[in-house]
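From: lab user (bench 3)
To: helpdesk
Subject: output format question, protein + zinc ion

Hello, I'm new to running complex predictions and I'm not sure whether the block I got back is the full result or only part of it. Here's what I submitted:
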Amino acid sequence: MYGKAALNLGLTKDDSKSAVQRNRAAFLAEVGAKCKSNSGSSLWPLVMLRQIHSDIIRFVEPPVESQLVGDGLVTNTPGLLLAIQTADCLPIILVDPKSRAVGVFHAGWRGTIKRIVEKGVGEMRRRFGSRARDLEAAIGPGIHGCCYEVGEEVREKFESQFGYAAKLFREVEEPDPVREKYPMLFLTARAPGHSELPKKIFLDLVEANRQQLLAVGVPAKSIEASSLCTNCRTDLLFSYRAEKGKTGRMMGVVGIRP
Ligand SMILES: [Zn+2]
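Helpdesk reply: Thanks, we reran it on our side. This is the complete output you should expect:
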């Protein structure tokens, strides 16, 4: 449906299963998730989740369960590729090179409020003895503050949870064509100092997750974020919002070489 060049990696109703399987195999080969043996080469198992915007993190070890549900995966088993599927939400990867452990997490606004990435750091500490200062974090492409309009209720939820919530939101006054055409109608009705123009609120999800990583002790220099906004760059990326749901899925993946 999206064409071969689009490289959709998610099973959606608009793409065929065989095309997605082909794309996934090409993707795994490209990222080097391949074992060579005498009888040829085989691809690493791809571990995926049924993502539910939760803070549930699954520890992965062989034999890998199918039908995992949750929004985070962690492992210290080499030769597995952990994957999060996105099309606007952020994929966030954590790597601990010291204890050779990795994790990948799915952070939309719901998962971010539930502190999925903070909990991910905690889970890696608990399972693998990872120290936050040794972790390296990568925040993949997602919808950025330029485009991620949210409702007032989302801002209120963040404000009730995070001391730094104010710096995550940006407000823009929406021009009102009726007011512009008939300004006299509104002059007397406006309370001094209060604009009555409707406001649009934008959330910076990248900064929200960067703050969580910093809060638990991941060094700023070890956090890298993609500069690409999915909603701005539909020429390159899938965006659920920009493409009104009729879109593919990207994958954020991490694994440990055997
Ligand atoms: Zn944008």
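A quick orientation on your result: The chain has two domains: 4-142+217-255, 149-187+194-203. Let us know if anything else is unclear.
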